[in-house]
Amino acid sequence: MPGIDKLPIEETLEDSPQTRSLLGVFEEDAAAISNYINQLFQAMHRIYDAQNELSAATHLTSKLLKEYEKQRFPLGGDDEVMTSTLQQFAKVIDELSSCHAVLSTQLADAMMFPITQFKERDLKEILTLKEVFQIASNDHDAAITRYSRLSKRKENEKIKAEVTEDVYTSRKKQHQTMMHYFCALNTLQYKKKISLLEPLLGYMQAQISFFKMGSENLTEQLEEFLTNIGTSVQNVRREMDCEVENMQQTIEDLEVASDPLYLPDPDPTKFPAHRNLTRKAGYLNARNKTGLVSSSWERQFYFTQGGNLMSQARGDVAGGLVMDIDNCSVMAVDCEDRRYCFQITSFDGKKSSILQAESKKDYEEWICTINNISKQIYLSENPEEIAARVNQSALEAVTPSPSFQQRHESLRPALQPRPPAARTSSSGSLGSDSAALSALSLDSLVAPDTPIQFDIISPVSEDLPGQAKSSGQSGRRTNPFGESGGSKPETEDSILHQLFIVRFLGSMEVRCDESPDVVYETMRQILAARAIHNVFRMTESHLLVTCDCLKLIDPQTQVTRLRFPLPSVVLYATHQENKRLFGFVLRTSGGRVESRQTSICYIFESNNEGEKICDSVGLAKQIALHAELDRKASEKQKEIDRVKEKQQKELNKQKQIEKDLEEQSRLIAASSRSNQSSTEGQFVVLSSSQSEDSDLGEDGKKKRESEA
């Protein structure tokens, strides 16, 4: 007998669309077999029930056997051996159609029993397993949906345990049911041949033993033919038993090996993520917007094919293109309180897709795989080896050298403060002596033992360096409709307003702020640290460039996250190769060492707008410089006017003092003359009173004193 195609039991746990498509072919074949067996059973039953119509029933059986080659079985329609065998049976049965009806007992034992067993037991078992598998598959899909909706917040542990147990039970039930269903369908291919050959063999033996007729030549031919058929049936049966035993052993092995995989989120210590993949396939939940603020999630099978991300729904023959992921960007996002979500954005930024993985392992593997594909590593001869070398290089990039601190101490006198110069290129360097800095070690550019900040901290919760705080400024929300509120926006008078979409990668303190090499070294260390520590999350913001400051605004709430005063931005540059990366250095007062200025480098990723952002910052600084010069000139003119006004006031005050002194002199002279005349009058009165006292005597004096 030729080889028989079979369903792969090893792929039942993956449950891919290809496996489902192959299962559909086997189910169609089982339906065709059932239809054909029902017709054959009815024909043989007519032989058994109607002895008077035996000749007609035998002729119908012969006819059906001749039509076997016209049947379109998806699996075995091209079996020439089976077709020729049935054709030979049809010829013999056609020759014996005029013979007497066989005994009912012999027909019941030799012909009707095997085909009845196949029809009532085997085919019904297939239908029952199909229904059970369909129920288990639906239960598993429902359990996965409930598990996907599980909140990432600290929820009720009892609910989480119940949902996890439900996923484990449903997945195990689906896997076991699917394996047994596949085994039954594979076995059906053997039982189909046995169920067709055994009844015919019994029928022919019953005919020979009952009638004892036929010519000797015909009998010899039949005996030889039937012997060959009997040998073939025994061979098929032995092959079937061996295959069933192998499939049962495979099922047992897979049940033991797949038990930990039934959990939706296996232990990452036992099943670590592979970060060097350039191909990945599996089920993901895709977010589809259904309205302005509403969305739905659809579970589909996703796989990578070269530089493309493909998706395939269950039952589809082939997949469809989702996105070109060459030079794309991928980052972790928070989306509708769901876990393990990440966003893929195309190279031009016009198309993006938000997907949700089932486990943390799949979540990290998908992000690493898409990152590797976006770098076009898959085009090389050994992509996984190259990806491993890239990841190893990233690991070595942030490995501190043994003499890190000593080199900083030896190079510290070499860094002398130099006056900043104007920016002359898109690199945004404010220093003109970059040749001297390039001779220094890169370790001298970054402060030793400096932590890397990967998240944006709200200015309400922590006082960030360079974050200017004023009353009513922190957390102020920008009106998205352009309506004027009660207070004036601080950037209302600015003549420059440019908005860019950026994603914050990280920030760290640096030792030098005079060369673009500082920005390049900070980019290298932050990207390497993200790759090593598996930090994929990036906060998307709107960067607003004005003549006063740089602002990071929340795109959803329009709340200002960070504000960087423009005079404090002393250096800005884009990456030499990847123009999407840019950064700037902010000089602030205070830091890890008090009473000294510190410099912090902030790194961002944009949508191919790094040079535009640097040009915009340079234009803003030029406008701010001219405005500052105009302001200083205006203040100087005002100071001159104030000095003149003060001198005039002093002159007027001196004149007023002289006038007051003259007036006071006149008043003193007049007062002196008045006092002199008053003194003379008092002297005359005193003299007259003395003369009167002398005339009155003692009694008169006492009387005057008492009156007085």
UniProtKB/TrEMBL annotation:
Ranges where the record places region Disordered: 397-430, 463-491, 635-708
Keywords from the named record: Cell cycle, Cell projection, Coiled coil, Cytoplasm, Cytoplasmic vesicle, Endosome, Membrane, Nucleus, Phosphoprotein
GO biological process, one term: positive regulation of transport
Molecular-function GO terms, alphabetical: identical protein binding; protein kinase B binding
Residues covered by the PID domain: 500-636
PROSITE patterns in UniProt: PH_DOMAIN, PID
Keyword Transmembrane helix on entry: no
Gene3D superfamilies, alphabetized: Arfaptin homology (AH) domain/BAR domain, Pleckstrin-homology domain (PH domain)/Phosphotyrosine-binding domain (PTB)
Membrane topology: Peripheral membrane protein
Composition bias, Basic and acidic residues: 635-665, 698-708
Entry keyword Cytoplasm: yes
Residue spans of biased composition, Polar residues class: 468-477, 671-691
Ranges of residues in domain PH: 277-375
Location of this chain's protein in the cell: Cell projection, Ruffle; Cytoplasmic vesicle, Phagosome; Early endosome membrane; Nucleus
Domain of life (superkingdom): Eukaryota
InterPro entries per record: AH/BAR_dom_sf (IPR027267), BAR_dom (IPR004148), DP13A/B (IPR047181), DP13A_BAR (IPR037929), PH-like_dom_sf (IPR011993), PH_domain (IPR001849), PH_DP13A/B (IPR047236), PTB/PI_dom (IPR006020)
Low complexity bias locations: 421-430
One Gene Ontology CC term in the entry: ruffle
Name recorded for this polypeptide: DCC-interacting protein 13-alpha
Protein source organism: Junco hyemalis
